[in-house]
Specification:
Distance between the termini: 22 Å
Number of helices: 0
Largest sheet: 4 strands, antiparallel
Structural class: mainly beta
Strand content: 25-35%
Radius of gyration: 15 Å
Helix content: under 10%
Order of helices and strands: EEEEEEEE
Strand order of the largest sheet: 1-8-3-6
Length: 129
């Protein structure tokens, strides 16, 4: 909050909007992605590496078994999926409020599909450096 004006600073869900279709990834391992895995939906160009995530949404075709995301890169393909592993369960869809990421430095996230044949999409916004 801007203390002088007593108003909250603007919150951005990103200056670049992109989607990542992981539907063709045929595993249920943890997979990490960063900005360079996405393409700018306006220009079609590959997004620069190491940009910060400003918004993250996930959608899965599986509505009976959990998929997972985490707001960091995977340590390995077999990382855990319990609460103490600090993961976010996804049943159908999930999005993190852009305000929660407004001062983050997240440059890589990870996802784990419930079933290798599931459709799984990441919707993300990135801030330019």
């Amino acid at each position: 909050m801007n203390s002088r004006l007593k108003v909250q600073d603007p919150i951005s869900s990103g200056q670049i909007v992109a989607a990542y279709d992981a539907s063709t990834i045929s595993n249920t391992d943890w997979n990490s992605v960063s900005s360079s895995d996405f393409y700018d939906t306006v220009t079609g160009a590959q997004i620069d590496a190491n940009l910060k995530f400003a918004y993250i949404g996930a959608a899965s075709s599986n509505t009976s078994t959990l998929s997972y995301i985490k707001l960091r890169a995977a340590s390995g393909a077999n990382d855990g999926i319990t609460n103490s592993d600090a993961v976010i369960p996804v049943l159908s869809s999930y999005s993190v409020d852009s305000q929660a990421l407004s001062s983050s430095s997240i440059t890589s996230i990870a996802y784990k599909k419930a079933d290798s044949s599931d459709a799984f999409i990441l919707y993300c916004g990135f801030n330019r450096s």
